[in-house]
Amino acid sequence: MTINKTKNGDAMTVALEGRLDTTTAPELDADMKGSLEGVKELIFDFANLEYISSAGLRVILANQKAMSKQGSMKVVNVSAEIMEIFSVTGFSDILTIE
Amino acid sequence: MKELTVDAKVENLDEVLAFLREELEAHDCPPAKEMQMEVAAEELFVNVANYAYDGGDGKITVSIDVAEGNSCEISFKDSGAPFDPLAKEDPDVTLSAEERPIGGLGIYMVKKSMDAVEYEYRNGQNVLLIRKILSK
After folding, report:
1. pLDDT for B24-56, tens place per residue?
2. How far apart are the CA of B67 and the nearest CA of chain A, in angstroms?
3. What is the pLDDT of residue B136?
4. CATH code at A72?
5. A16: closest CA among A28, A33, A7?
6. Are B43 and A53 inside 8 Å of each other by CB?
């Protein structure tokens, strides 16, 4: 998985490429924990994300929890396949998906 | 039916998923269904890798069978201590982001996304079976 972060003032876009699974989720978790200071708007771009499992959902939820305290978060460019995973888990109700 | 036996270690996840993916693609599985099968398989494999042998070494055998009518069956067999992961209580998926505990979703996703999920302890083995119709 590739993590591509772009900062624009207090907004940060995190573009993910590849697979967010049990093997790669800890990388994203560690990376994000050190990156959120001062961020008011967090955008996850899933355009090139091929796959997400529950390990990936855990990291997304942890970031949503952190951002609820300091600003906002949204997820963009979600594929139909990943949207189904979000629906099954109720994530489609708790995340802002555009 | 195709079968793969590997050490029950998280490092072997990619190999297991690639093995299943190849078979699913060979049967023209629609992408959304393929991801659901993989997500379920990842969950069950990682569960065995993390817990079945209590930190020790052991094997897991994964088999996949796509039958007539595109009914796909994947089974996981390990020789660890008897453990039924399906017995776990389902999480409350109506809670808000703030209220939700992080984690606990994996097995629930398996139950919700498959047509059938069965656990059995048979001949000294944990046998978990998932089944889903692959066609639209």
Report:
1. 999 999 999 999 999 999 999 999 999 889 878
2. 24
3. 61
4. 3.30.750.24
5. A28
6. yes
Domain count, chain A: 1
Chain A neighbors of B93, CB-CB under 8 A: 89-90
d(CA A16, CA A31) in angstroms, rounded, equals 12
Distance from CA of A81 to the nearest CA of B (A): 4
What confidence tier does B104 reach under pLDDT thresholds 50, 70, 90? Answer: confident
Q: Do A53 and B106 touch (CB under 8 A)?
A: yes
Q: Minimal Cα distance from B99: which residue of A?
A: A65
Q: What pLDDT score was predicted for residue B55?
A: 75
Cβ contact, residue pair B13, A21, below 8 Å: yes
- Over residues B54-78, the pLDDT tens digits come to 878 999 999 999 987 789 999 999 9
Residue A18 is part of which domain span?
2-94
> Inter-chain contact A54–B96, Cβ cutoff 8 Å?
no
Asked if A94 and B46 come within 8 Å (Cβ–Cβ), the reply is no
**Left (φ > 0), alpha (ψ -120 to 50) or beta: where does B54 sit?**
left
Q: Are A59 and A16 in contact (CB under 8 A)?
A: no
Would you say the pTM of this structure is higher than 0.90?
yes
CB B75 within 8 A of CB B16: no
CATH T-level topology, domain B2-133: Heat Shock Protein 90 (3.30.565)
Domains of chain B, by residue range, sit at 2-133
Q: Encode pLDDT of A31-53 as tens digits.
A: 999 999 999 999 999 999 999 99
**DSSP element (H, E) containing B41:** helix B31-47
